[in-house]
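Need tokens for this chain, all 281 residues.
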Amino acid sequence: MQLFLKLFEPYLQWFYHCFDRIVINGHLLGLMREAQIVYFFRNVCGHPKITKELLRQRSKDYKTWVEQFARNHQVPLEWPPPKVRHEDLVASRQHRCLQAGQFGVYYIIKSREQGWTFRVFQPKFPSADPNYQIVRKQRSLYTHFYFYIVDPVAGPMVLRVGSFLPFSVTAYLNGHNFIERKLARQGVKFVKDDNRFVSVADPAKLQAAADRLDAKTLQQRIDYWTFIVAPKFSAKSAPPAVGCTGSTSWNKLNTAAISSSSVPGRFAPFSSAPANWGFTC
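Here are the structure tokens for all 281 residues:
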């Protein structure tokens, strides 16, 4: 092998490598457990009794916001036709956005999927507290929103947001899209076949772009779009921040969260008190 390298080293090139498809799960850390839900509604929001209607109203507020967001920004919001892949449905609109250099949310798809949520039960036996209810975390089938985004740094990406508490977020990114955006900004010519680079005018810049994709960059882009499209809480009703556990968790992804008093369809001001989101690979 050493002899081979010695003889052909001038003709060898380094190959780039990067993360291909990246999936990162996000959680609103202050609303992950039953006790936190009880504390949030009783102590923060001032609702002495937790009911199904109370939880359902939070979901209804967010769905209304998404509908008005789509209408205000002229973004399609629809259920996908049967047996049609999401990527195929949004492909033409994504292509037009990339060709025109337009960035932002360009499509929203609704999908009924399993996810964590909370359910309220009446106690079987009488209690001294007339407002006593049982809150239990469970997996249920409910609506999730897929926000299809063209980001100026990360390129095409997707955020999936659950419409029920605890409003879990899943981010889908692609390392090759990040490299493509980097090379385009530098004016480097390249040929890309689907999800791979076939040729590039400057291999060194391709390698440098691949090396620039790191956790900090992912955090910044997910943080930015989570702030825009995820549920928002007002400064008064922001849930308490809780430390993130696990070495793969990012407890600095602070985004504002949903307030029923917020104006639907408008972005909450960045001065709002942030809720604490944790993202894990």
